[in-house]
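Homework-ish question, so no full write-ups if that breaks the rules, but can someone show me the predicted structure for this set?
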Amino acid sequence: MILLDYKSSKPIYEQIIEQIKLNVMKQYLKPGDAIPSVRKLALELEITPGTVAKAYQELERQQIIETIRGKGTFIAGEIELKPDEKKVLEIKKRLQTELMELKMMGYSKNMVVDLVVGIYEEMCVC
Amino acid sequence: MLEVKNIYKSYNKNQVVKDVSLTVMPGEIHGLIGENSAGKTTLIKCVTGIYKADKGDVLYDEKPVYDNPEVKEKIGYVADYNEYIKYYTISQMVHMYEKFYPAFNKEKFNDFNQIFKLPVDKRIMTLSKGQKMRLAFMLETAKEPDYLILDEPTSGLDPVAKAKFFELLINEVEQREIGVLISSHHLDGLEKICDSVTMMHEGVVERQMSMEDMKSELVKLNVVFEGGAGKAVYDLPQILRISNVGSIYTMVVKEYDESFDKKLRELGASLVEPVDISLEELFVVLEEAKED
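A: Not a homework solution, just the prediction itself:
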């Protein structure tokens, strides 16, 4: 379910968050699907349970997963998609830098749009 | 809660455990690490109530463990070296556990043995070290304790048995919320199951923290110095270990922060990238740093 890049400078817990979100977006994981417990995933990925717990806490805060005591952890029933203003601003800043590089390489507006649409379509079945 | 409060223990005049404290909460796995003769086994024998500590307390929900059979029943203990009645078969041993421990769950023992496959009709004296270890784990876990204390439980286990052991252990922790204190030299195993860790050295606690914090004590970096790293880099006091392949330098660094990052760049680094460090490497580097 999750493939980690141990050589990446991106923190492991962020990689877990990202990949679970991606699996949800691609609908490989659907509402109500059980996901491994913190300890099982830690054992499987060979990382500290604390790291998995940190990722799960964040996913729970974002209401992407829910833990039912005594039953396990599941993809949340209804995933509410509401953009976090602060986060959007952060992403905008990152995009600005990336777009600048594309522009320097001669990318036109249309080429950029095609690229972004391509990535978006790869990500979800919508 | 299992609480160890300021324990001291000496043999003759040899002080083996000095002022050690730790707590294990229900549902928590606490790792105990340290080089040989750091005092881990002695500490464990005090915690399980086999030894009486010279000073300090071991408390199970605020009740002393030593000389308290009622409490001891709720603590499972797998020793580094497990001796049972040699001439008994495994079945006879199971029967004895059933008589001694009212909570003993024979079904659980049998379930475990579906996985570990010990020959129940064989006498204990004919078992290998790994088989005895598995037997001890199965017996002590099937008595459904609230706490499990494991001294080097993975020694003598082959890789398949080790993987199964970890799986069974975390199932118990998750389903029954037992607390576990585990000592091991197999740090890669501990790393993926422990919530917190105590590092002992010469009888005292050297570090005690969550596994997450322990892992961030030292940072491993991949750094590129295109023209090679100069002496100034090697002289940086934060660097505990450094090696290179061409212009890519791998270093293990303490007290890593932004100013260190900046310093490296001032010294000519074109890329600084933190990578994951294993508990094993972290432990070795810390030990080496102490010797210098």
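Now go work out the reasoning yourself. Hint: Residues 159-176 of chain B form the longest helix (18 residues).
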